[in-house]
Amino acid sequence: MAQARRLRAVIDRFAGRVLVVVGDLITDEYLIGKPGRISREAPVIILKFTDRDVRLGGAANAVNNIHALGARVVPIGVVGRDRAGEELLTLFRTAGVPTDGIVTEAGRTTPVKTRIMAGGYQATRQQVVRIDREPSGELSPMAEDALLACLTTLATRADAIVVSDYGYGTVTPRIFERIRAIARKRSVIVSVDSRYELPRFTGVSAATPNEAELAELTGSPVDDERSVEKAGRQLLERLDAGMLLVTRGSQGVALLEREGGATFIPIFGTDEIADVTGAGDTVLSTFTLALASGASPVEAATLANMAGGIVVMKRGTATVAHTELAQALSDGSP
């Protein structure tokens, strides 16, 4: 009961926090169709188009999760001057998220993940195939300078900075060094989730790899708690990070503290997972926001694990609202 009261107090403090998210803003597109018949042209099913849904993905999903949890959040990233970029900006504006930290670069493609979903009206929709549209080449020097200026201006009052790197080149070495300089000057929490280049993000407060990424980065098996802790310690040293929060799918999460022990937290809710799309963004966002709200690392990991358990029961890229997390805490107090 005492822990539950502390966790509720942390959730109540979310509304007073300001977080900055720097990273790859992605537009998630869902094209939904009902299976009709077999094509005469090839042995494939023809889907009758029924709907199109556009959501915030990548770093934009991390932003959306922080916003849903009740904190003030400022996204810093780049989009192209294209339909996907306009849709992403419109989604932010509709939600009431500021867009003055988002740079529009002519000639650049906004990353889009298009998922083709098939299912009958009373059947569960299944993802058939995914098509990714990606920017080619690096950020232009002008766009990078503009992002650096946004960082300098908008991150001065942040309680924490989230780095969400999906490999599309937004978080350049110069931008990350500016983040570290701001963090050193103001003692700001910096958390990182990087799909492909986590080892270059050193000296941060926390990193949030999944179990498969941990195994790949260390070359060590992660078959049980002992091996997860051993590999996690290796990665902590390599990153010179304060904490590692390892997401373990149906096994929950593992928290490793540089100056402390290892804590293994079982999955919250059921392991009958509906959709893991974007769940890592939810865990990263909740963990960082909780730390910025005065939670201990274990308390922050507990809330992040709860949020992850809630969001994987939703279809598609989704968020966890402040009220949902508070209700989950009341229903199943840890």
What layout of secondary structure does this protein have?
Elements: H1 2-12, E1 18-23, E2 25-38, E3 45-58, H2 59-68, E4 72-80, H3 83-95, E5 102-105, E6 112-118, E7 126-133, H4 141-154, E8 160-165, H5 173-186, E9 189-194, E10 206-207, H6 211-218, H7 225-239, E11 243-247, E12 253-257, E13 262-265, H8 279-292, H9 297-311, H10 322-331
Parallel strand pairs: 1-4, 1-8, 2-6, 4-5, 8-9, 9-10, 10-11
Antiparallel strand pairs: 2-3, 6-7, 11-12, 12-13
Helix pairs in contact: 1-10, 2-8, 4-5, 6-7, 8-9, 9-10
Describe the structure using short key phrases:
334 residues; alpha/beta; UDP-N-acetylmuramoyl-L-alanine:D-glutamate ligase; four-stranded mixed β-sheet; 27% strand; globular
Describe what this molecule looks like in 3D:
With 334 residues, the chain is of the alpha/beta class. It has a single domain, classed as UDP-N-acetylmuramoyl-L-alanine:D-glutamate ligase (3-Layer(aba) Sandwich). Helix content is 37%, strand content 27%. It contains ten helices and 13 strands. It has helices spanning 2-12, 59-68, 83-95, 141-154, 173-186, 211-218, 225-239, 279-292, 297-311, 322-331; strands at residues 18-23, 25-38, 45-58, 72-80, 102-105, 112-118, 126-133, 160-165, 189-194, 206-207, 243-247, 253-257, 262-265. The strands form two sheets. A nine-stranded mixed beta sheet has the order 5-4-1-8-9-10-11-12-13, sandwiched between helices. Strands 3-2-6-7 form a four-stranded mixed beta sheet. Strand 8 (160-165), helix 5 (173-186) and strand 9 (189-194) form a beta-alpha-beta unit. Helix 4 (141-154) runs parallel beside helix 5 (173-186). The chain is globular and about 65 Å long.
